[in-house]
Amino acid sequence: MTETVLFVDAAVLDTAAGAIVPGQRVLVRGGEVAAVGADVEAEAARVVDLGGKTLMPGLIDCHVHVNAHTADLAGLGDQSPAYVAVKASVELREMLHRGFTTVRDPGGADFGIHDAVAEGLIDGPRIFFGGKALSQTGGHVDMRPRGRSVHDDHQCCPDLGLVCDGVDGVRKAAREQLRTGAHHVKIMLSGGVASPTDRIDSTQFSLDEIRAIVDEAEAANRYVAGHAYTARAINRGLAAGVRSIEHGNLLDQSSVDLFLEHGAFLVPTLVTYQRMAVEGAEYGLSAANLAKNELVLDAGLKALELAHAAGVNLCYGSDLLGGMRRHQLQEFAIRGAVIPAADVVRSATVTAAKLLGEEGRLGEIVPGAAADLLVVDGDPLADLSVLTDPETHLKLVMQGGKVKAGSLG
């Protein structure tokens, strides 16, 4: 059960405007924000005086892999799905306690972990899942070493992807993910760091295959998210109707033009490359994987600056693997070095909500929004470290009107 709560003397973070509005009252009732204003009153409400602390919407990370408790993705599919699910539940609780009340998992999370969170069996961010990511043979989630011919694509294997080829094959694979209730379909448009046999600068899937997957997602009123690094791979995806590009480290001006033309979204994941360079080997990345990481490590900030300057829709992503997931909040600091704090916060709130199709419901403190709220001591627009150091600054996490961390006092 949720209780009716009236927050008073709140400095409300208006994420759309990029401003702090002091002296506000916010009424939470029935798991939603019921009213916001300087003169809001409510009988029989529990009054919580924030003493001028910042009240902001819960954070949204648009690129996590809840199953990836190791960076050795090739070995993940051979593990017990029960073990991986338990590990995922632990990580989800930690994400929630960092302030992430919503996440999108574009590869690995399925309807089971989604339902467990939605039913309150485990604490965690609400999950927008894509099921298994789709890859061509030899693509980014084909984790077979060169000498192995067979692979097991059973849906209960807790790995991140599914190998499929040909227009008919990719249509069926997309339909299988959508059949399970997936909120989007994730495809691999280029090579990646953690896979064993592809090149970063490769393109993956034919244009006919990409268009077939987009057709299936659109038929189900869903969308396609595409993993891509190079401008060539990004541009093929955007031209074929892919709605969000994950990573995008090597984009160029032609890519930016296509983002703007199609109203598409870019989800940079800069923190993962920094952490893989420092501690990737410790968590299972091979020497070959680490060498590929170097190819994209330094380019990401330049891509972020170029996209931001042009007004591309930017969303927050972390994409961390294994024990490196503890650095999830450091993406704020990395981005804040090159773009304004208000825009970094938007990427993890209102713009992320737009990508998810949850405008007005998530990412803002407005009447009718879900009561996903954080109380922080400090102003994130003046100092993003207010968000990156939750042990010091994060005082309360509320999700759907229920307190998940901290207390109402």
CATH class of the largest domain: Alpha Beta
The 3D shape can be described as: globular
Secondary structure: number of strands: 18
Strand content: 15-25%
Domain Amidohydrolase-related: 54-400
Protein name: Amidohydrolase family protein
Explain how this protein is built.
This protein has 409 residues and is of the alpha/beta class. It has two domains: 5-58 and 363-406, Urease, subunit C, domain 1; 59-328, Metal-dependent hydrolases (TIM Barrel, Alpha-Beta Barrel). It is 33% helix and 23% strand. The strands form four sheets. Strands 1, 2, 3, 4, 5, 16, 17 and 18 form an eight-stranded mixed sheet that branches. The longest helix has 17 residues, at 81-97. It starts with a strand and ends with a strand. The model has no long low-confidence stretch (mean pLDDT 94).
